[in-house]
């Protein structure tokens, strides 16, 4: 009798579970327009996510390999004064290339999307774009930044920016979107003064007024920047 | 119990769907296709870098005499070229822009387009340009690292000449449609030389972690 009761409860639970999946599937299906366009869109989104996962894994692998190489080089440097001298030179060059983490006084800046406006021809102007990031980074370097990171991606001598509306691609990283956080180490008074200058970043300031683009920054006694974790290959360049 | 199960499963399904589309909301399919193309290229570059690092690590692990010195010397040479500290040469494209009224933002955009298009070393009117070198608007015109660069601008690039010529073609077409530009041309060269260098700047504020 007790065994039959248990079996009945099990059967009811199984049916309930199946019903749960069916209902959830139905709800999910009703949220989306049943068309090929949507299916294609979802397939593209899945491709992006798969590629982003591969991208993140490759960058983790690169960071690990660089750490292991550092250890091996330090071991070798411990056995030879000449190697030690070379290692010191390389350490300095790596620091300037953004390949090592750094910290120091600086500024932290936050840039976020505004609100869509009715103005014609400005459909995407309320979104943060890659030129905004490029302009901020260029301004900070011109005002004494010694290292910069954007949403944790370190800027290097070879950095390039690209992207479409609302998406910012830096080097080989995945697309970034609002909010964008820029951290810079350097002369913080000079950088803050430059960011405060109403004539600086004219495009962003105009869109602050028109679309409420959000820009705030603050000087800080200690800003930390991670090491660059992507490729720095120059296969076509040869030293003269 | 049944109601709880149904609610749980439905919530999980809906939240998963929301998560899938979280970062890509509002992007059209064409833009997504570009994102995929960029990510493929980025992942290829990352894998090339990883392979290069693995080779370097293997050399260091071999423990052979002078292996570390060779690895470090090669790395120093490569980083000096990346940072613009030494003259370099290689295949590339030379773009000449004769214009009046172009600003520092125009030059920064041109430099960035070429960097995104595969330029590995660049100079403008014999001034070496890497990220971090200031390009500013002054009363006398556009300056690079404090020196005014008068028109015409000759942008010398080294990199994959096929990719760079595609970028240069698009760029010069757009520039030639700009009223401020008298003429914008480009040529592909098998060996471009960049002799100018950037001065090394020691850190004043930054501390290594």
Would you write up a description of this structure?
The complex is a heterodimer of chains A (240) and B (209). Chain A folds into 2 domains: 36-95; 102-225, Alpha-Beta Plaits (2-Layer Sandwich). Helix content of chain A is 50%, strand content 18%. Chain A has helices at residues 2-31, 36-77, 81-97, 130-142, 188-196, 202-211; strands spanning 102-112, 145-150, 153-154, 161-162, 169-170, 180-186, 214-225, 238-239. Chain A has a 5-stranded antiparallel beta sheet, covered by helices on one side. In chain A, helix 2 (36-77) packs antiparallel against helix 3. The model of chain A has no long low-confidence stretch (mean pLDDT 90). Among the domains of chain B are: 30-59; 88-194, Protein of unknown function DUF881 (Alpha-Beta Plaits). In chain B, the strands form 2 sheets. Chain B has a 5-stranded antiparallel beta sheet, covered by helices on one side. In chain B, strands 4-5-6 form a 3-stranded antiparallel beta sheet, covered by helices on one side. Classes of the chains: A alpha+beta (240), B alpha+beta (209). At the A-B interface, helix 1, helix 2, helix 3, strand 1 and helix 4 of A face helix 1, helix 2, helix 3, strand 1 and helix 4 of B. Strand 1 of chain A pairs antiparallel with strand 9 of chain B, so a sheet runs across the interface.
